[in-house]
Design a protein that fits this description.
The protein is mainly α. The chain has one domain. Helix content is about 65%, strand content about 5%. It has a two-stranded antiparallel sheet with strand order 1-4. A hairpin with a 3-residue loop joins strand 2 and strand 3. Helix 9 packs parallel to helix 18, helix 11 packs antiparallel against helix 17 and helix 18 packs antiparallel against helix 19.
Length: about 450
């Protein structure tokens, strides 16, 4: 079947039977994946607006990244994967770079763009795949789980369920209306996921938003059952506030190496783990056991990141939610094209999406965090040579509020422990290079 994937998208459309699929099945798969990942339309603008970016501008950018990248994956990669701004990396963008380190969001966008260019170069020369292959599986799983904890922590913080405390650093928040609504929304979303309801995350966001209306969490128009929208329901895309506002000049400094480093490796983990995981389950593997068309898929993922920096969003990446569409029978690029097209109408209803309160998206963040914890069960914590670096990578991401710190200390501790044990040959040569860059990143920060 490998040769069929390489024949390209348009040949595939005429020969879907060779892939064991049909047009209705591919369309249904595309709709399914869209519903499972569509929550990003609301969540990404809310997270990046913390960085001072305009909500409607980021909304436009988010939709463009989702649509263009997914369609490109279909036409060029000929694979059934949807792409969107990555969860976790958007939090790193908004909270770590902008809020904590004080980097202007325009410069952060420049870092996204530069990292995308590096992604493209590494993908073309197949270096990116070699780097990821050098990183121990235990560290990959631990970092994914750490990012999951980070995302869930942000959700709990946004809801007011967790608050700061000078004595204990964090504490339980007051049980006010917003927190109660968050808990109700979390219960609803959890049950939807348990019962495997498609688009459960999105339905949970909508349900929590509707429940918020009588509590005065939204603007009223004549009574508690109506939501006041600023302006008309139908709006035009915002191409003025963040579109092409990236600052590349200030990125070309020594101090920006660490952020670019983080964008690079986080996106690598997301994309590679998604390709490998979904392809394994769906049997979409070549004769060498590698995901089909993985070279093209990695290149599209890299282009998605570059597009993100240009239009005004954090890095785009391949979404694990694509597994839902694959389970529905999606096997070709037609599924991805359908996914991309379904995002486009949302360019014209930005005002409706602005009405969603931040605590309504918090349950989705917590559930996404749960998703990302799955790989932790495969880590052998009884083997301290593997377990301690994995634990440091996992725990330091939420505790330092920085994905960068988790990655750096996980890599460094792994390499140093192996060297101290005299097991130099067990460390891939590329890991020594990565560890050297980790030390450089610490010095620069």
């Amino acid at each position: 079947m490998k040769k069929y994937y390489e024949k390209g998208f348009f040949w595939t459309i005429k020969n879907l039977d060779k892939f064991g699929t049909t047009i209705p099945k591919e369309v249904l798969a595309g709709i399914t994946t869209f519903l499972t990942m569509s929550y990003i339309i609301i969540v990404n603008p809310q997270i990046l607006s913390v960085a001072g970016m305009d909500f409607s501008g980021v909304l436009t950018a988010t939709i463009l990244v989702c649509a263009l990248s997914s369609i490109l994956m279909g036409l060029y990669g000929n694979l059934p994967y949807g792409l969107a701004p990555g969860m976790g990396i958007n939090a790193f963008f908004a909270f770590t770079l902008v809020k904590i380190q004080g980097i202007p969001w325009e410069t952060a966008l420049g870092a996204v763009f530069i990292s995308g260019i590096i992604f493209i170069i590494l993908s073309i020369f197949k270096v990116r795949r070699a780097i990821v292959a050098a990183i121990p599986l235990s560290l990959r799983r631990a970092i994914a789980a750490g990012i999951g904890l980070f995302i869930a922590f942000i959700g709990l913080k946004n809801a007011g369920f967790i608050v700061s405390n000078p004595a204990t650093f964090v504490a339980l928040g007051k049980l006010n209306a917003g927190v109660i609504l968050f808990l109700i929304g979390l219960l609803i979303t959890t049950l939807l996921i348990i019962y495997k309801v498609k688009s459960g995350l999105l339905i949970g966001i909508i349900a929590t938003t509707v429940l918020a209306i009588p509590f005065g969490r939204l603007h009223f128009l004549g009574g508690p059952l109506f939501v006041q929208l600023k302006g008309s329901i139908i709006t035009f895309p915002n191409f003025s506030s963040v579109f092409f506002k990236l600052n590349i000049k200030d990125v070309l400094t020594i101090g920006m190496i660490a952020p670019i480093f983080t964008f690079l490796f986080t996106d690598m983990f997301d994309s590679i783990s998604t390709f490998v995981g979904i392809s394994q389950v769906a049997g979409m593997l070549d004769d060498d056991g590698q995901p089909r068309n993985v070279g093209k898929a990695l290149l599209v993922d890299a282009v998605s990141t570059t597009i993100s920096g240009l239009v005004g969003s954090s890095s785009g990446t391949t979404y694990i939610e694509s597994a839902a569409g694959v389970e529905e029978g999606g096997r070709t690029g037609l599924t991805a094209v359908v996914i991309g097209l379904l995002f486009l109408p949302f360019l014209f209803i930005a005002n409706i999406l602005k009405a969603v309160p931040i605590f309504a998206t918090a349950p989705a963040l917590v559930i996404v965090g749960v998703y990302m914890m799955e790989g932790i069960k495969e880590i052998n914590f009884k083997d301290f040579e593997e377990g301690i670096p994995a634990f440091l990578g996992l725990i330091l991401i939420p505790l330092t509020y920085s994905i960068t710190q988790g990655i750096i200390w996980g890599f460094l501790s792994y390499t140093i422990i192996k060297m101290a044990r005299g097991k130099f040959k067990e460390v891939h040569p590329m890991m020594y290079v990565i560890s050297a860059f980790s030390i450089l990143a610490l010095i620069l920060m």
